Q: What sequence folds into this?
């Protein structure tokens, strides 16, 4: 059974068709890239999957169950996590707390335990701390655990967002331009990072990215969008030479040397 | 029936006075995203200066009004310069607290004996009240004056905002300070002008209020200020027609409730309506819904 | 329950404070008048911590806090006045009833209005506060014993410094334990970025309502205690000016800091009275003016508040064995057990 199954997905804003007849099937363990020019509707698809928007039409199935129409926090609890195009960390909170907060839905103590600092509370807090630190260590942020999230340099903030998203133990990870604004060296490290976490945490990954270095190296297959619709799908090699895709990015009559 | 019409006109008068104050709130919010709690107290200062003008210094009414407007315009500019500008790019709540401080300061300072003093003063009417019957509507000359004056001011404001350069500057600053600066707009001056106009309008409202409900005291601005602020939010904060709409609604609801349900309950009912409207239209009646980009 | 080292230090300091006040009482340095000021300041601490929870930690802008303070005061006051016998038992029963009622009203009103965005939530809560005040002024038409615009008296004045002190301490510990738990982290996440918190699996509606209910219940508790220390309850004491008082304490103290709220609540409570003592009879009219000026100057000089987001070490739980920022102050909830 595919991890994610999207059929005939569409989203209208007033008269604007932001997403039209989008479909996708993700098998477990795949890394798939969602690419296309700016404004193509890629982040809108992410927002539809994660529940920020309710689809105008179509369906989204996750692990065989329909998730469109569920509130975002429920969808996350089912096992879908994401990062954001414009970083959305909990800025004034510490690095550690950004990660620990995400353990909340699965915490095994209640309010009374918290008020009274019961043994169950202490045990759970120890566990959350240990797992959070482990996650931070995996992403090379453990030594910054107590710093305010907003004080981190840009690249670290992107990694913190990824660490935070992993804290919900997702099966599906949606990455929205994780390599934005990075130089080739940083992009290469990000590629290694995504590969590493995919293996380590048994993830399926859907990636929006403009950095072709990352897309071509990482993704097994690509879905190309323009004006809210899919215009091409295929392997990176196929997509690279696809004239429809070239036209979408570069305009009519353009060629790649 | 006549009684109902009479109350509706009373409500209109009150609504238009609230509109003068509400406009100041909404314009200032538009350019600096600040709820200027001190605005209701500028209204109070305007009422007092107007009173001194026509009742103590013997000025003719139009002159007394203009005097009050000029003084309060100046007051508004000074307040902005001292208490708000230092906090313009600090967290919004800080400016709000400062506004609170200014409000308290104006109230307590005015209460000092050598300023306005803490007691109520009765305002002698500068115009004799005359009752007319126009097309079956019971109306007084004072009500006509209030409504006409406010309508004229609204028209002038409309012209200012949409037909002058300073008006365009105000609209630009309301969208984005930095972009405005890059376009050559002097943001500081524009904000000062906005405060000046808003305060002048509040002063006008104060004088009209003093003439219509002839009792003034240093704390008189609190409730009208609160209601006008509510009106501005009700109509959609930052939106000028919204302020007028909200004010007319508040004025009408308050007057009709006081006349036909209970005078004590009028505030409670007015605010209940506010809450209900907000639950249906969370950004106010004319407010634009703010969808955040994720 | 395991008591951490931090808690023990906190309790010791509390004991020292208590002993100090007792000494001042016994030697007569602390007069009846100043005792009342201190007691009121402590009661304000409880109420202010409630608003701190709602606004400082969860980011919900409530301008109606005094309404819940008042609801608690009247509820506790009338229960003890009508059914009570002046005993400590009834004191506790009535203040708990006050807190519960405040919490229940907060739940009913919170569910619909907490959907509103910041400024709009502010004025909705402001409006609610006015509605409650009007209700208080006209309550005697339905329940005569509540008094109306002229107020209610007759509540047994059973609160004293000892009781108030213990209650404040308990509240501080409970609030601290809430903040430094997963619940507190959920709340601050909502404050920082509600949409992101939602997408990270946190039921934002549930926790906005939870913190609102708890915060308002604390206000109700504070009100109930107040009713047992002041012989006269007046609707005017619970209007939006009182709400602004709580707000200004929370902001001046620094959003997201319990320490800031506690210190500022006590300091601000003493400010007006100190001004009265310092200025003397001649300048008593100037109290309000100077109070307002201090407020303006304070916020301009330090817009982020006194303790913005930081806590004194002894309020934090056991620190991690990691490199931390130096000194007693650490980033809020940045260290934990």
A:
């Amino acid at each position: 059974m595919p991890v994610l199954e999207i059929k005939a997905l569409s989203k209208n804003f007033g008269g604007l068709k932001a997403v039209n007849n989008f479909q996708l099937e993700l098998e477990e363990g795949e890394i798939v890239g969602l690419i296309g020019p700016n404004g193509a509707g890629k982040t809108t698809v992410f927002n539809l999957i994660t529940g920020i928007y309710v689809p105008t039409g179509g369906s989204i199935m996750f692990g065989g169950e329909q998730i469109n129409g569920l509130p975002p926090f429920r969808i996350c609890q089912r096992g879908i996590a994401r990062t954001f195009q414009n970083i959305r960390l909990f800025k004034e909170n510490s690095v550690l707390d950004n990660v620990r907060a995400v353990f909340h839905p699965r915490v095994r103590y209640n309010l009374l335990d918290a008020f009274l600092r019961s043994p169950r509370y202490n045990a759970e807090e120890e566990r959350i701390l240990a797992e959070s630190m482990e996650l931070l260590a995996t992403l090379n942020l453990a030594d910054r655990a107590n710093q305010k999230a907003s004080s981190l340099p840009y690249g670290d903030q992107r990694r913190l967002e990824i660490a935070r998203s992993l804290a919900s133990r997702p099966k599906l990870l949606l990455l929205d331009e994780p390599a934005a604004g990075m130089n080739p060296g940083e992009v290469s490290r990000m590629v290694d990072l995504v590969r590493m976490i995919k293996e380590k945490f048994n993830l399926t990954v859907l990636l929006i990215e403009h950095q072709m270095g990352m897309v071509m190296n990482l993704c097994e297959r690509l879905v190309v969008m323009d004006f809210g619709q899919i215009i091409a799908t295929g392997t990176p090699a196929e997509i690279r030479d696809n004239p429809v895709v070239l036209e979408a990015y570069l305009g009519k009559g353009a060629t790649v040397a | 029936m006549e009684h109902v019409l009479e109350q509706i006109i009373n409500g209109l008068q009150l609504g238009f006075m609230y509109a003068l104050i509400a406009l100041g709130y909404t314009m200032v919010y538009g350019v600096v995203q600040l709820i200027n709690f001190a605005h209701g107290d500028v209204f109070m200062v305007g009422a007092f200066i107007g009173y001194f003008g026509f009742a103590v210094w013997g000025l003719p009414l139009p002159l007394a009004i203009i005097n009050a407007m000029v003084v309060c315009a100046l007051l508004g500019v000074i307040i902005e310069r001292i208490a708000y500008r230092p906090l313009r790019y600090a967290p919004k709540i800080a400016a709000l607290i400062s506004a609170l401080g200014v409000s308290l300061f104006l109230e307590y300072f005015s209460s000092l004996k050598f300023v306005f003093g803490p007691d109520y003063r009765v305002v002698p009417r500068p115009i004799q009240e005359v009752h007319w019957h126009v097309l079956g509507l019971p109306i007084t000359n004072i009500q006509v004056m209030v409504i006409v004056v406010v309508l004229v001011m609204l028209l002038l404001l409309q012209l200012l905002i949409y037909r002058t350069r300073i008006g365009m500057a105000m609209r630009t600053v309301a969208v984005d300070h930095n972009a405005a600066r890059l376009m050559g707009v002097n943001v500081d001056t524009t904000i000062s002008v906005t405060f000046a106009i808003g305060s002048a309008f509040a002063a006008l409202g104060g004088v009209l209020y003093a003439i219509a409900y002839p009792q003034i005291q240093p704390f008189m601005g609190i409730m009208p200020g609160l209601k006008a602020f509510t009106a501005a939010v009700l109509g959609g904060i930052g939106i000028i027609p919204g302020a007028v709409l909200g004010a007319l609604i508040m004025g009408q609801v308050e007057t009709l409730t006081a006349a036909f349900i209970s005078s004590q309950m009028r505030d409670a009912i007015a605010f209940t309506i506010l809450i209900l409207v907000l639950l249906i239209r969370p950004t106010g009646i004319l407010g634009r819904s703010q969808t955040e980009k994720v | 329950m395991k008591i951490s080292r931090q808690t023990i230090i906190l309790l010791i300091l509390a004991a020292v404070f208590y002993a100090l006040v007792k000494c001042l009482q016994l030697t007569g340095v602390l007069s009846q008048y100043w005792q009342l000021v201190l007691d009121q300041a402590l009661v304000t601490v409880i109420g202010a911590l409630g608003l701190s929870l709602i606004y400082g930690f969860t980011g919900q802008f409530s301008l109606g806090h005094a309404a819940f303070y008042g609801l608690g005061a009247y509820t506790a006051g009338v229960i003890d006045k009508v059914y009570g016998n002046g005993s400590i038992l009834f004191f506790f029963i009535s203040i708990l009833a006050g807190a519960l009622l405040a919490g229940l009203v907060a739940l009913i009103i919170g569910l619909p209005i907490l959907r509103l965005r910041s400024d709009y939530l502010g004025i909705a809560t402001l409006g609610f506060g006015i509605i409650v005040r009007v209700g208080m002024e006209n309550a005697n038409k339905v329940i005569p014993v509540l008094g109306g615009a002229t107020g209610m008296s007759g509540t047994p004045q059973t609160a004293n410094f000892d009781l108030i002190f213990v209650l404040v301490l308990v509240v501080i510990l409970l609030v601290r334990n809430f903040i430094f738990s997963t619940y507190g982290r959920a709340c601050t996440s909502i404050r920082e970025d509600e949409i992101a918190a939602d997408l990270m699996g946190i039921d934002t509606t549930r926790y906005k309502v939870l913190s609102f209910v708890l915060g308002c219940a604390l206000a109700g508790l504070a009100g109930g205690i107040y009713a047992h220390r002041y012989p006269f309850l007046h609707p005017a004491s619970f209007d939006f000016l009182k709400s602004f008082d709580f707000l200004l304490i929370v902001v001046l103290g620094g959003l997201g800091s319990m320490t800031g709220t506690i210190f500022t609540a006590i300091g601000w409570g003493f400010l007006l009275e100190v001004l009265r003592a310092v200025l003397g009879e001649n300048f008593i009219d100037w109290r309000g003016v100077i109070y307002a000026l201090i407020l303006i100057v304070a916020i301009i000089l330090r817009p982020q508040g006194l303790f913005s987001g930081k806590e004194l070490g002894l309020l934090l739980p056991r620190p991690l064995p990691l490199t931390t920022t130096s000194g007693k102050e650490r980033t809020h909830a940045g260290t934990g057990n």
Residues 325 and 331 of chain C are 8 Å apart (CA to CA). The beta strands of chain C are 152-153, 232-233, 310-311, 330-331. Chain C has one domain: 5-13+37-315.
